[in-house]
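In the current project phase, we have settled on a layout for protein records. A sample record is reproduced below.
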Amino acid sequence: MTPRIAFLWRRLRETRPRIARFLALTISLAVIAMLVRLGSQIDWREVFLAVRGIAGTTLALAGVLAFSGYAAYAGIDYLARRFLHHEQTVWKTLAIAAASYAFNVNLGVLLGSVGVRLRLYRMLGLRHTSTAGVVLFGSVTNWLGYCWMGAIFFFGAVPGTLASWGIGPAATRTAGAVLVLVACTYVFLCATAARRAWSFRGHLLAFPSVWMAMAQSGLAIASWNIVALVIYLLLERQVPYPEVLGITLLSSIAALLTHIPGGLGVTEVVFVDALRGQMNAHDVLAAILMYRVLYQWIPLCIALPGYVAVEIKIRRNRCGQDGQRAQKNGQAQ
């Protein structure tokens, strides 16, 4: 690396946090402005009437798909268990993954995919290195699926919805090509890396086999598609599925950049604005509201008592062990 390139790289690393904060602030302000405008235009009574108008069969099918989405996401932790060879049982692994996913989609990545998952694995006796490996494996898998889904941008299914945002087809197709290239690079590295372990800043990183990479890709693609399918069904199939998928991917990035837990308000704004002229805003908001109920709020209501029960049980066991230890020490003295 030449001195000039090294200098530019150092400058980029120094300014990256400021650029990220500026970008997040800009997107947050834009979302807030859209929310204020949307809130002043919407008759929420009409939204709830639209919710009541969604067919029961549609809600039932969307509920089954939501369950399938959690199963697909839990499968990622199962793959991590196979890759890392950790000692946690299969059923506990799947339950932890599903619970952390419920927290993740409602409260954000740091509390859900990282915080809750780390806490549960550690409480149930998994080593620190293994828990960190599970989190890293799950994060890589999730975004690997996102990169594969970037093909939806490359093939131009979404650009028509972005014209009002000043984003042209060339920009979205370029972004799609980059995302797919990243996914292909990961699979290529898994297939060709002669050395399975790599050292990065003192940390040992290992690539899985190409078959594991393909399994990661399949589960992550299924997970992202199920989210879009739930919304597609609740929109009563009035919007082409590729367009719904593209808007779902865009809204997830917007929610990530704004750091709003669960993308609350962000998803609504993106969908309403993107589907303007194709669907009534009340119907779009009704679909997103029911998506939140089925995919976010009901699973959280199930996961939260389970998490509290595990916390209470572990604390009682520790108190009991401490009491027995103190009793033995007293008898020894």
